[in-house]
């Protein structure tokens, strides 16, 4: 069961962190790409709703992973900038805890993409703290 919320006018979703990671694993990375696009879209919409747009393009963030991985550098860039955007969004909301892009990058590189779990936990706490409206979706 997913939980959709409205935060600063943006539709966001509370996802189970380990479920997102497992889906990425089972689908051989396909869901990981979908998840990456969705979290970047949610961050873009949230920041625009807060009046401080981060200026990110979710499609470019996705393309940096695939097919940008062929060039090697783009996945490193997007795996640095997305957690940085999340940290800025957390700061916008007044959160005292912010995601560390270095930890996220290390989890992506060395701990079998568990950065998904790390980032999703942070997103979930951000969305729960700042939500305007809750809708439970089956």
Order of helices and strands: EEHHHHHHE
Structural class: mainly alpha
Give the percentage of residues in beta strands. Answer: 5-15%
Largest sheet: 3 strands, antiparallel
Please characterize this protein's 3D structure.
With 138 residues, the protein is mainly α. It is 61% helix and 12% strand. Strands 2-1-3 form a three-stranded antiparallel β-sheet. Helix 4 (73-92) packs antiparallel against helix 5 (101-110). The protein is globular and about 40 Å long. The chain starts with a strand and ends with a strand.
What attributes characterize this protein structure?
mainly alpha; three-stranded antiparallel β-sheet; 138 residues; single chain
List the helices and strands and how they pair.
Elements: E1 2-7, E2 10-14, H1 17-26, H2 30-49, H3 58-65, H4 73-92, H5 101-110, H6 115-130, E3 133-137
Antiparallel strand pairs: 1-2, 1-3
Produce a short descriptive summary.
By secondary structure, the protein is mainly α.
């Amino acid at each position: 069961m997913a939980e959709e919320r409205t935060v600063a006018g943006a539709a966001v979703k509370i996802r189970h962190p380990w479920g997102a990671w497992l889906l990425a694993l089972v689908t051989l990375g396909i869901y990981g790409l979908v998840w990456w696009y969705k979290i970047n879209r949610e961050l873009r919409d949230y920041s625009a709703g807060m009046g401080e747009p981060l200026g990110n393009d979710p499609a470019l963030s996705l393309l940096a992973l695939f097919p940008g991985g062929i060039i090697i550098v783009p996945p490193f860039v997007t795996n640095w900038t997305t957690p940085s955007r999340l940290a800025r969004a957390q700061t916008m909301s007044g959160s005292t805890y912010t995601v560390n892009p270095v930890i996220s990058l290390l989890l992506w590189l060395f701990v079998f993409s568990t950065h998904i779990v790390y980032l999703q936990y942070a997103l979930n706490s951000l969305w729960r703290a700042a939500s305007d409206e809750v809708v439970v979706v089956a």
